[in-house]
Amino acid sequence: MDQTGTFVVPDDWKRRRIFRNVIVVSFSFLLVFTAFQALSNLQSSINCDAGLGLASLATIYATLILSSMFIPSIIIRYFGLKWTMATSMFCYALYTVANYFPSWGTLIPASALVGLAAAPLWTAKATYLTTLGIKYAKIADDAPEAIINRFFGIFFLFFQTSQIIGNLVSSLVLKSEDDSTSDNSTEFTCGAQDCYTETGEENATTYCDPPDKNLTNILLSVYLACGIAAVFTVAIFVQRLPKNDKKEDDSTCGLFLATTKLMKETRLVLIIPFTVFSGLEQAFITGDFTKSFVTCTVGVGWVGFVMICYGCTNAIFSLFWGRLAKLTGRVFIVLTGTVIFAVLIVVLLTWTPTEDKLWVMFLLAALWGVADAVWQTQINAIYGALFPSDQQAAFSNYRLWESLGFTLSFAYSNFLCVWTKLTILAAMLGLGTIGYGIIETDERRLRRYQPPSSGGNELNTKL
């Protein structure tokens, strides 16, 4: 107690309390996305009839586009950060429930609900961790940026682990399905020649062989338990911040107007193809690679194991590329990722998967994770560096165009052959490389002719 008799909370206790909230929030996201990410990877296999699974994923990202620009400020203003997270996580649990009874009347509305809940969930999480980081920095007399980066590092350690756990669970549950899987080689063409609809060609195929319903229900029960546990974890153990820590926004349409206004910037237009490619390539590995290369060849039980490999390399190289950028500069890393993606696309176009070449699928998934890590780390950094005074609108554009890539990929998956989708990926990658090259060339020219004291939007990194 102080001299007035008031009980004073020790700084160490305050720091421990803040750190506990960071761990609890991170753990709740691990639970939610253990279920959601693994279930997304399986949608093209367990709900393949009439392309329902891929349609549900397209619905999620289509509604996410609208949600990102309009809904977060409204929900957070009235519910606060804690209950926004809890309510949004409950929507993810409802999506799992809808998968028990998959139909166009159940799964599509549940997918739309997830899309609407996703933006408030991630915005509330980011605001909550940032607020805790600022509080912790004041108590510890440390730099806020360093503490915030540390808290987000802890969060993404938990988040990336969810990819591994969720896929491991799916493989352990569904692996027994492979024992009764018949040889598909006489009925279906796997790999780049797999087509989701009859095209009138002799080699057109429509591969759809969902796992046993009882096994699927067991898997869904595990995922539903994770989702419910996440909701209760946030509701019971996460500290509710004071009202003045809620996200305020005087104009609901303010972010939308700022986002659309920024689209007039030439540099944003040039970086859009790279951003759309980010959504396209993530959707391809989730929906097309898992079905047309893995499930079609060796069975759905191997999907989780292959995607674990993808998740591990993605997490490891997300850290690696971030550190390497300080030494080599961003251009080298982006070009490395571009080359890896280009090689992978060529291999997938020319290689026909077989059971005795299972190791190749693991290798391709691992390399895809390496290349995707470039996009997840460097493209975000590029947006922040190009538009330092309009970061909220810039990242809103990033979410919008990446979500558009997801939506387009999942939407046309029901109508195009895999080789066509790979061709689209290659074209978008090439267009994005040209746009990025123009941006970097322009930045070099500006640095060459501007005096050192001039301010400007520069890519603050070694080139």
State Rg.
23 Å
The total count of helices amounts to 12
Report the principal-axis shape: globular
SSE order in H/E notation?
A: HHHHHHHHHHHH
Number of strands: 0
Distance between the termini: 56 Å
Mean pLDDT: 81
Largest β-sheet summary: none
Helix and strand content put the structural class at mainly alpha
Query: Which regions contain 5 or more consecutive residues with pLDDT less than 50?
Result: 5-9, 181-186, 197-205, 244-250, 453-463
Strand portion: under 5%
| DSSP helix fraction | over 70%
If you had to describe this structure to a student in words, what would you say it looks like?
- It is built from 12 helices and no strands.
- Helix 7 (266-298) runs parallel beside helix 11.
- The chain is globular.
- Residues 5-9, 181-186, 197-205, 244-250 and 453-463 have low confidence and may be disordered.
- The longest helix is centred in the N-terminal third of the chain and has 47 residues, at 52-98.
- It has 463 residues and is mostly helical.
- The protein has helices at residues 11-46, 52-98, 107-140, 144-174, 213-237, 254-262, 266-298, 303-328, 330-350, 358-386, 391-412, 418-449.
- The N and C termini lie far apart (56 Å).
Give the helices and strands, then pairings.
Elements: H1 11-46, H2 52-98, H3 107-140, H4 144-174, H5 213-237, H6 254-262, H7 266-298, H8 303-328, H9 330-350, H10 358-386, H11 391-412, H12 418-449
